[in-house]
């Protein structure tokens, strides 16, 4: 509607102007003036050009005006009529690169009104020198670049225009480059660098040249830039280690993180090709767990536990590789030094215990072996026993010692000896170990008739010492005592009933008596067992029924695992066993002997107690491979090592009476009796060889034959193998056959790694007499490992410019096998570009080099894969392969190319910051660093640089400052795209600013007659006004009007000028003054979306609501978009003075809403609180009606109830007394948690720990150390 009114009024004014023309003369005048002229410089004479008198200029109030009231760079001299320079004019600041540069002014004359346009063209002078975007232009050019290759240079920019702009370029004289000049599409000029002579990095690594840009002005001006050329080396150098072999000594037990050594390799190349990375190329699995290497620094660091006894030396290969795959290797040898960290170890190899009191001085009691894993002085050991004992240590072969008697023994004076053997090494500080050996002195064997019988101390054989006479008692009762070697020594006894008769058939009553006794005992046992089982069964049934009845009548009494145990009840799975000795029962045997049976074998008959159940953990029955009958052996509680050391002696002592009675007197007397002889040494050493991975049980050799012994000689002389460290024994002896056999899998690589000779050493120990033989077993290598490369893929980056014949060392393959089973050769897959050459390194290994036979062409093939195989010399032949992936690198022979030479874009003025204007894009056919394009402004005015920025990576041009169409409506920017090596290209970006109606019209009062005579005729000019709007188009069209009911009107003049004239006679007596309001409205569209203006779209009617509520939403342009809202209250009225309660109304509405919310919240909280109180009271009432036994996990403890997790055991139970607790409860405490206070008995034992472990033994000691007997719980 506004536009329509504006059009009608505009047409009316135009018609009026044509019909009633004013006396206005319009003329246009043009002047030229050079920039940078001083003030008062005369441009021209206005009076002369207008052909008026100079005095008339003052009379008609001549003045110079600008359209936008901006700075006036020229003015008029009213005295002379000259148009002069008022302010210094800088063409570049005013117009930039715009041609031509014109300033528009208006010459204003009054009485009558005249307006003359003055066009002032600013002429350029050569006041600016050419400038390069950067003072330094960097290029990276490979020495392999070919002659004739061109490199575009940054274009110089001159703010002057025309002949004052850049005209030519010149390059400092040099032997490698020349310069060529080219024209751009917009008339500018740029230069290219041309390579005329090949570069040589070895002669000159970089070159600096001066490039000069010269303009065509007078005087001539120039600008310079330095061209810095870095000559890149072709990757023709491999990393070189500072040493081929690094040697270092490292003490054992070095903490993890300790630096061992730092290897260093240098590469003569630069950039990525000179960056060296390190890694292990050849390292054993064991060393890989102990050491790591820093890929960047080459520092070798400890990562595991270093043990000299485990490994004394480590060898590893280090691989240094540059970024393109060229590599070299070096060796690191780490010697581990010994630290005295292992105390000596004393091993009891043999012990005669007990020894008879009539033993001669020098009698050998035992043999011990002393070992120390350390070396050198740390391994030197001194052994001794405490003084004041009739024993001493006699050194034997190597690290063996014999414990012998020094004086006569007397059992009646001293029946037991505790001999402490101390071993001390020679380290600093010295370490020592002690072992206590308990020896018992045995008396002569006593029987009913002394001198009639004797028993073997070790074999248990019972023999007659003389003929049985008729006067001898035909019934003999012998008590046999058996004692073990444990600490403390444990013993038991058995009774042997002997009946001497010439004929066993004549004593039938003995068998009957034995049968009757046995049968009577068996019947008693059966009755006891039947009664026990029946009682247990009935008790079990009764308990089950009782539990079911109790569960129906009352809630659970036991909760959370608590156990209630009656006082007279033993827990299940246990039995009461009475006894005082180690063995819980007496073992009785019957024997039938004739009068001539002194030389016959004695055999056991069935025991009276075949089915006796021994106490748990006291005796156990085991089946031995070498003996048919089952043997009862002691299951002691000593340490595992001591049990193993003493197992043979303990078994022999325990089984002595059994074996004697089983195998007879005479035969075992000759085989088992231990004869102590003088110790002597056998100096014979044995050597064998065996291939690795030989099956277990395979025969290596016959030791008995090699030592000149009988087949069973090893068995009788108790032959055994010992190792220095008591480690894993991969070999064993078969004493029955005298053979040396494989006992475990042998892996030479695991045992010896890369050592050329792998030998296992053993000591063969023979007793009676003591002999020591050294056995060396050489492990022969078999071809059981294939060659392996450190990596499955070898990557090489080779430029297409690389010359033929260039060599590329490859990673060396590793074969765990040695000698002829190691790597012998390499083979390469057939191809047209590469061959290979095999070389030997210093340690006997082999590596190969890749040799370029034909030049590469990236355009034909970007990459290629070759298969390299490493072959060993074993049988069968084994091989390993690796893939060589060759990436062909492109030479930097392509410049970035823009998708468009000129980018055109438009953007609204007042656009928010970070608005994307346009995105430029350039493509580079090169790859890698040479293909990475970077964008930057190459030519941009200072004003534009404050408004726009460009992303160097993406090429996005964004708004960074306020854009005002009225300030400038067009920007021209030069963009440069540059690759990693400096090659660049340019494009132009034209940005047009779109106008928005963001400026309101401005009214300027140019002239006024404040005092008007009342007799002024209608049409008298009162004032002249000028209307200006900075917008364009419809936004700039202005409609002017004054209020009605005044005797004045507006008459449009030229352009945007209006005259205020009278329309009728004036009468001062009626009205002496007038307030004339001039309203100017433009023809633009409101931009409420952007400025937030709220306008009415139609007239307000009386039917419209006088109160309007508007909700306004404000949204930004971010990602994601964010918004907020506000509420606007409008009250429509003809007079605001009549509505003083507007603020109160708004406050009351807001207050009413707040009150509603508060009421709702108060009602909700009150309802929730009352409901909670009702629920709590209801729960309390319900709980009072229920039984108070167990409630929500609480424990109600009656007087005869035991606390949770405890059991009461009276008499023979695990707990020795009742455990009582006091607690204080209130009447309402049935819902509270029950907590035990401190017990009367501090050492309370939980029942679940007492009753659940089937191996628990009930023992304790009183203050004097006595151990009273308590019933033992035995698991059935």
UniProtKB/TrEMBL annotation:
Compartment list: Cell membrane
Can the keyword Repressor be found in this entry's annotation? no
Entry-linked Gene3D superfamilies:
Cadherins
TM region positions: 525-547, 652-679, 1157-1179
Enumerate the GO terms in the molecular function aspect.
calcium ion binding
- Keyword vocabulary terms for this entry: Calcium, Cell adhesion, Cell membrane, Glycoprotein, Membrane, Repeat, Signal, Transmembrane, Transmembrane helix
Q: Some GO term, biological process aspect, for this entry: which one?
A: anatomical structure morphogenesis
Protein's name according to its UniProt entry: Cadherin domain-containing protein
Q: Where is the signal peptide?
A: 1-27
- Membrane topology category: Single-pass type I membrane protein
Upper classification of the source organism reads:
Eukaryota, Metazoa, Chordata, Craniata, Vertebrata
PROSITE patterns, from UniProt?
CADHERIN_1 (PS00232), CADHERIN_2 (PS50268)
Q: Which residues form the Cadherin domain?
A: 76-132, 133-241, 242-346, 355-452, 449-510, 682-789, 790-898, 899-1003, 1004-1142
SUPFAM superfamilies in UniProt = Cadherin-like
Q: Does the keyword Ion transport apply?
A: no
CDD domains, sorted: Cadherin_repeat (cd11304)
A GO cellular-component term linked to this record: plasma membrane
Q: What does this protein do?
A: Potential calcium-dependent cell-adhesion protein. May be involved in the establishment and maintenance of specific neuronal connections in the brain.
């Amino acid at each position: 509607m506004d536009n329509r009114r504006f059009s009608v009024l505009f047409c009316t004014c135009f018609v009026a102007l044509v019909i009633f023309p004013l006396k206005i003369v319009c003329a246009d005048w043009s002047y030229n003036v050079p920039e940078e002229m001083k003030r008062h410089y005369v441009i021209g004479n206005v009076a002369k050009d207008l052909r008026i008198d100079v005095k008339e200029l003052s009379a008609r109030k001549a003045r110079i005006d600008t359209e936008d009231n901006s700075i006036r760079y020229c003015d008029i001299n009213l005295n002379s009529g000259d148009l002069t320079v008022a302010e210094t004019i800088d063409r570049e600041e005013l117009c930039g690169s715009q041609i031509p540069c014109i300033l528009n002014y208006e010459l204003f004359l009054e009485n009558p009104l005249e307006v003359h346009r003055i066009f002032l063209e600013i002429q350029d002078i050569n006041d600016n020198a050419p400038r390069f975007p950067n003072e330094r232009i960097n290029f990276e050019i490979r020495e392999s670049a070919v002659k004739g290759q061109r490199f575009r240079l940054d274009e110089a920019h001159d703010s002057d225009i025309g002949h004052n702009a850049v005209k030519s370029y010149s390059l400092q004289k040099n032997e490698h480059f020349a310069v060529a000049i080219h024209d751009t599409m917009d008339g500018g000029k740029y230069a290219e660098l041309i390579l005329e002579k090949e570069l040589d990095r070895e002669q000159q690594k970089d070159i600096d040249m001066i490039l000069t840009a010269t303009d065509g002005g007078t005087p001539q001006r120039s600008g310079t830039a330095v061209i810095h050329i870095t000559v890149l080396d072709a990757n023709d150098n491999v990393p070189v280690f500072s040493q081929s072999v690094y040697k270092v000594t490292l003490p054992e037990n070095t903490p993890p993180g300790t630096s061992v050594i730092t290897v260093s390799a240098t590469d003569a190349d630069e950039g990525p090709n000179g960056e060296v990375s390190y890694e292990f190329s050849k390292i054993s699995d064991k060393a890989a767990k102990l050491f790591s290497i820093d890929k960047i620094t080459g520092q070798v660091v400890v990562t595991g536990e270093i043990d000299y006894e485990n490994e004394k030396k480590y060898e590893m290969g280090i691989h240094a590789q540059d970024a393109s795959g060229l590599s070299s290797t070096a060796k690191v040898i780490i010697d581990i030094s010994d630290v005295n960290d292992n105390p000596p170890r004393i091993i009891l190899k043999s012990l005669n215990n007990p020894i008879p009191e009539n033993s001669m001085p020098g009698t050998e009691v035992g043999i011990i072996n002393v070992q120390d894993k350390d070396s050198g002085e740390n391994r030197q050991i001194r052994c001794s026993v405490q003084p004041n004992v009739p024993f001493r240590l006699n050194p034997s072969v190597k690290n063996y010692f014999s414990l012998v008697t020094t004086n006569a023994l007397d059992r009646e004076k001293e029946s037991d000896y505790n001999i402490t053997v101390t071993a001390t090494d020679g380290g600093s500080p010295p370490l020592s170990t002690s072992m206590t050996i308990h020896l018992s002195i045995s008396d002569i064997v006593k029987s009913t008739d002394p001198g009639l019988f004797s028993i073997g101390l070790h074999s248990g054989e019972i023999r007659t010492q003389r003929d049985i006479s008729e006067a001898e008692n035909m019934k003999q009762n012998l008590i046999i005592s058996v004692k073990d070697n444990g600490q403390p020594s444990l013993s038991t006894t058995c009774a042997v009933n002997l009946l001497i008769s010439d004929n066993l058939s004549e004593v039938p009553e003995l068998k009957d008596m034995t049968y009757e006794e046995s049968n009577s005992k068996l019947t008693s046992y059966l009755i006891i067992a039947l009664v026990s089982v029946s009682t247990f069964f009935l008790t079990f049934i009764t308990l089950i029924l009782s539990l079911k009845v109790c569960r129906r009548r009352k809630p659970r009494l036991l909760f959370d695992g608590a156990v209630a145990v009656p006082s007279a009840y033993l827990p299940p799975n246990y039995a009461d066993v009475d006894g005082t000795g180690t063995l819980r029962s007496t073992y009785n045997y019957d024997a039938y002997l004739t009068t001539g049976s002194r030389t016959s074998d004695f055999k056991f008959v069935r025991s009276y107690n075949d089915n006796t159940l021994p106490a748990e953990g006291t005796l156990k029955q085991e089946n031995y491979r070498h003996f048919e009958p089952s043997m009862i052996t002691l299951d002691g509680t000593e340490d595992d090592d001591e049990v193993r050391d003493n197992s043979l002696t303990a078994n022999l002592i325990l089984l002595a009476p059994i074996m004697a009675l089983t195998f007879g007197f005479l035969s075992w007397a000759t085989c088992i009796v231990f004869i102590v002889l003088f110790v002597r040494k056998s100096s014979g050493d044995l050597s064998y060889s065996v291939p690795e991975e030989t099956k277990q049980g395979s025969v290596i050799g016959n030791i008995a034959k090699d030592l000149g012994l009988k087949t069973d000689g090893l068995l009788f002389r108790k032959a055994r193998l010992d190792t220095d460290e008591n480690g894993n024994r991969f070999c064993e002896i078969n004493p029955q056959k005298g053979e040396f056999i494989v006992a475990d899998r042998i892996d030479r690589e695991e045992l010896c790694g890369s050592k050329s000779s792998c030998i296992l050493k053993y000591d063969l120990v023979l007793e009676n007499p003591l002999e020591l033989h050294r056995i060396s077993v050489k492990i022969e290598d078999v071809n059981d490992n294939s060659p392996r490369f450190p990596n499955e893929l070898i990557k090489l980056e080779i430029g297409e410019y690389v010359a033929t014949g260039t060599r590329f060392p490859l990673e060396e393959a590793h074969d765990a096998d040695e000698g002829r089973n190691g790597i012998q050769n390499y083979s390469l897959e057939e191809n047209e570009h590469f061959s290979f050459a095999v070389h030997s390194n210093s340690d006997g290994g082999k590596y190969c080099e890749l040799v370029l036979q034909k030049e590469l062409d990236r355009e034909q093939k970007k990459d290629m894969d070759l298969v390299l195989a490493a072959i060993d010399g074993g049988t069968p032949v084994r091989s390993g392969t690796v893939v060589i992936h060759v990436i062909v690198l492109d030479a930097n022979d392509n410049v970035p190319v823009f998708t468009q030479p000129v980018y055109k874009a438009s953007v609204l003025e007042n656009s928010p910051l970070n608005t994307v204007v346009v995105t430029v894009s350039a493509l580079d056919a090169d790859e890698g660093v040479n293909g990475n394009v970077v964008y930057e402004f190459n030519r941009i005015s200072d004003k534009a640089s404050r408004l726009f920025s460009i992303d160097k990576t993406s090429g996005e041009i964004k708004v960074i400052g306020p854009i005002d169409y009225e300030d400038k409506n067009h920007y021209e920017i030069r963009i440069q795209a540059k690759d990693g090596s400096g090659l660049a290209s340019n494009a132009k970006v034209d940005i047009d600013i779109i106008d928005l109606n963001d400026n309101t019209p401005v009214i300027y009062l140019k002239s006024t007659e404040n005092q008007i005579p009342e007799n002024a005729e209608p049409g008298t000019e009162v004032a002249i006004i000028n209307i200006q709007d900075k917008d364009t188009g419809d936004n700039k069209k202005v409609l002017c009007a004054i209020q009605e009911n005044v005797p004045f009107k507006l008459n449009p003049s030229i352009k945007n000028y209006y005259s205020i004239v009278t329309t009728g006679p004036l009468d001062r007596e009626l009205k002496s003054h007038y307030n004339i309001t001039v309203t100017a409205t433009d023809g633009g569209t409101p931009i409420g979306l952007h400025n937030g203006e709220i306008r009415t779209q139609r007239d307000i009617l009386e039917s419209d609501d006088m109160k309007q509520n508007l909700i306004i939403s404000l949204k930004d342009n971010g990602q994601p978009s964010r918004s907020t809202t506000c509420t606007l209250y409008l009250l429509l009225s003809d007079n605001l003075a009549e509505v003083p309660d507007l603020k109160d109304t708004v406050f009351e509405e807001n207050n009413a809403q707040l009150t509603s919310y508060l009421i709702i919240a108060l009602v909700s909280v009150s309802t929730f609180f009352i409901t909670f109180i009702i629920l709590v009271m209801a729960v309390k009432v319900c709980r009072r009606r229920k039984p108070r036994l167990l409630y929500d996990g609480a424990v109600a403890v009656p007087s005869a109830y035991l606390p949770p997790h405890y059991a009461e055991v009276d008499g023979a139970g695990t707990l020795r007394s009742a455990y009582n607790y006091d607690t204080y409860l209130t009447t309402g405490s049935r819902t509270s948690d029950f907590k035990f206070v401190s017990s009367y008995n501090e050492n309370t034992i939980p029942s679940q720990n007492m009753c659940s472990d089937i191996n628990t033994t009930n023992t304790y000691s009183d203050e004097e150390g006595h151990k009273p007997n308590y019933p033992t719980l035995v698991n059935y």
